[in-house]
Predict the 3D structure of the following.
Amino acid sequence: MNRTHSNIGLDGAALDASFPFRFTLSESAGSWGRLLAVGPRLADVVPAARVGAAFEEVFDIDLASGGAAVPERPRGDTPYLLAPKGRTDGFRLRGQFVPVESVGATVFLGAPWVAELDELARFGLSLKDFPPHESIGDMLLLLQTRNTALVELRALATRLQEAATTLDDRNRQLEEELDRRQRLEATLRQVQKMEAVGLLAGGIAHDFNNLMTAILGFASLASEQLPEGTRARTYLDEIQKVTERATALTSQLLTFSRRQVVQPKIVDLSEEVRQSESLLRRLLGEQVRLVVEHVDDPIAVKIDPNALHQIVMNLAVNARDAMPDGGVLTVRTSAVEKADDDGGRWALLEVRDEGCGMSPEAIERVFEPFYTTKSQGQGTGLGLSTVYGIVQQAGGETTIESEVGKGTCFRVLLPTTREAIDGAAAEAASRSGRNVEASILLVEDEPAILAVLETTLREVGFTVHAASDPAAALRQATALEALDVLVSDVGLPGMPGPALAEEIRQVHPSVRTIFMSGYAPDAAFRRSVGSGEHEFMQKPFPPHRLADRIANLVAQRDNKESRSSCTG
Amino acid sequence: MYGMINRAVQGLVLDRHGEETWARIRTMAKVEETEFLSMEQYPDETTYRLVAASSEVLGVPAEEILEAFGEYWIEYTAEAGYGEIMLAAGRTLPEFLANLDQLHTRIRFGMPHLRPPSFSVSEAEDGTLTLRYVSERRGLAPLVVGLVKGLARRFGERVDIDRIAERSDERPYDEFRIVRHAPAEST
């Protein structure tokens, strides 16, 4: 059915307003025709689009969007993109060709194709170029606002991410801080516990030492009264041996409690370990293979060599007992830098076994005195406490790495020193002649000890003045014309031994002093002994050893005097 | 109101007075949001409270705050990704003002909750413009003064603007006279 719609025809002005980019093509065989009319905005932005121009002179058809090939005549059912010839800025018109059969022409109705709002300015257009029926302008605005919102959200997401990262960092720092505090608190608890146990152990050792000094002294005196070979003398000798074993026990307690008076020297850690090697092999037995590794360069540490040997022995025995079926025991020495130390070098002694290992609970208690996992009679529980005490006293650290079934590694860190390693200590032969004449002032508040020492020293031939308190001692010293040696207990009622010695030195400046104690709690005093200011004897000791020491001192003094008189 | 308005208020305070002042204003206005999203709807009340609190904290009358905000809004929209939209609306002050309603209408297709004001402009022979402003919101006339000044600067012009008629029960609009001078020295 043929229908006409003449009642909705648009006049030119209405067409210009609604389609400012329109143009009309004539019918033409073999081509797309010529431009019969041109919309006002098209004429502005495409100057070549003038009435009479051939379509092909004005436009290229964008094939990418318009179809596979240019048809002979424009089709009415396809959107076209037209690119004005000569424009290289990408400006294109999008629209459709509408055949108007009544006038034998084709009208192009369309508008600029713009995908981004900023292209408007580039093409010399504005929103007004899109008539209200054309939605491209609205879409462009929508797109722009959505893009802007997206940019905003991205920025927000970045800020949130940064905030989360900051929070994570703070959280991690907090966890590390908590961790550090927990470790510190654990260390503090351990130190406090060991300190308390040490005080207790040290106190007991002191009383024990006093008692044993008397036992040892009287047993020794009694023994010397009896002919050799008699049963009673044998018994007395046994008493002395047992007392000496008991002495070793209290000595270990003192070491643990860091009350032991030590005589440190500068030694090479590796060399000391090497010296212990043969003894270690005997100690470990055939089941345990000993591997000793050390660096060639000497590692100088300041420590009492006997104490160092004790560390090695105690750790080795502990390792041996952890490997009842045998295994490898590795002792390694090296110089290291400690992570929490600012550049100082430390000597490391490592003793590693392949034994049964320890539970975390055992590790926590392993340095406590008398703590042992060994069966009764197999260990005193003092070996590792002794190690702990020695290392602490030497300014070092002991750490343990252990896991049940996987063995244990003890690491002892000792501060190194730049001082030169001492040569073989010239141990003066102490068994000097006992027929040395000397005037001795003996001060001891424990009557039994005073008695036994006085008796022994008199028997040896010294002139002995005994006093049981500092006041009496001072009185006697003042009255004496000559005094060679002062032998004094450290802990005296009313005035400590060192103060008393100081007073006496005012009267007898050349007097030599030997202090004795079962317990030397004053750190300053322990240091003064370490520096060789005076002699020290750890109770208990056999009385004749005191006599030897006095004889030695007097002989040294006499030698010095005779040398100075020869050269002077 | 869309969040872009509140974002611009926040931007104005942050740019000119810093974080601490903004925090005080936000607290006084009892606004919990630390961020506003441009395309999100917020109650008009939030914006009014922010303006009132800014006036209180900065010790400046609300009218001055609104005028300053109007000027800032032009800078802000240009920088916050709406520059192309502004450009599409016109390249001269009269053209832009004449197209504002069309721009708002088009924007409403993408922001359906937008309740924009309406503007109409007429140009006298001497170039003086008369701007009529109709809004369902009351009390925002000083904002228009700032907006026009901001726009003039954007187009490189210097203007004097006076309100010549005030909205009343009988008159549903405010009217402004805009006298345009020679181009501003720098833009």
Summary: Chain B touches chain A through 23 residues (CB under 8 Å). Strands of chain B lie at 118-123, 129-134, 157-165, 174-183. The CA atoms of residues 86 and 126 of chain B lie 26 Å apart. The two ends of chain B are 30 Å apart (CA to CA).
